[in-house]
Amino acid sequence: MRVPDDEIQGAVGDYLALNRASWDERVPLHVASGFYAVDRFVAGEEHLHGFEINELGDLSGKRIAHLQCHLGMDTLSLARHGAQVTGLDFSPPAIAEARALASSCGMGARFVVANVYDAVEALGETYDVVYTGKGALCWIPDLRAWANVVAALLVPGGALYLSEFHPFLQMLTYETLEFEYPYFNDQAEVWDDGSDYADPDAKLANERSVEWPHPVSEVICSIIDAGLRIEYFHEWREVSFARFSFMEQVGPRLYRMPAGKPDLPLMYSIRASKPT
Ligand SMILES: C[S@@+](CC[C@H](N)C(=O)[O-])C[C@H]1O[C@@H](n2cnc3c(N)ncnc32)[C@H](O)[C@@H]1O
Predict the structure, then answer these.
(1) Which helix (H) or strand (E) holds 95?
(2) pTM for the whole structure
(3) What CATH number should be reported for the domain holding residue 215?
């Protein structure tokens, strides 16, 4: 449920604490969930989408920072493709699980607890690729500050690869595909919602969260204004979770609209390079 307008400013003031409490509480639920399927991942299951693997290209020997890495599954997948990886997330339990997962997989990876805005100082090094997305940007209030962090983390010639849920998707009601939420919203969206996308039985105690549904133009202009050169912007008919119950599964953790339903953009990907 969206909170009333007179509660939004107070929640925005506390957004880091509110969002961190929510994410910390989700970590053990996600580790136990079929959605994340940690056991299958340890056994070798791919966690990146096919389009991400194709677009990322050859990762052998690449140094990659994964911002907002959650349990580290995408981070470690990048390592399985040959990269030297560092994951960053502001949730201490998420980073503890990411380290445990790396150990279970017998893989080397660096995981750091920090706010994404503090990533330059917290990581203290630069990278060939900054990878992020799949539910990352909606937690960031100021995308221009975020893009400056990304640019500072890249070596000259390095690239941001962003693979994110399309904001168009967030406008729709869950089952009836009606427009309920605005595309353009000048203030945060604050929710009181104890449910969790990975665990249908969840009832979170920390149910308040604060999000910013950034229009695509804001994402693109923030990246350009940080001095990066956009190489491509792609929109996708697939998404990582069954946002609507009638979606059809077309791959591991990949769903699309069935025939007869509107053909909507569900994700997008951007590659943007730092000039040499
Ligand atoms: C939806 S998850 C990302 C999921 C990830 N792409 C995956 O597939 O596992 C969002 C992550 O952002 C992290 N996060 C939210 N706000 C953050 C911030 N300000 N700084 C760092 N991490 C943050 C949360 O702890 C959470 O792990």
Answers:
(1) helix 92-104
(2) 0.97
(3) 3.40.50.150
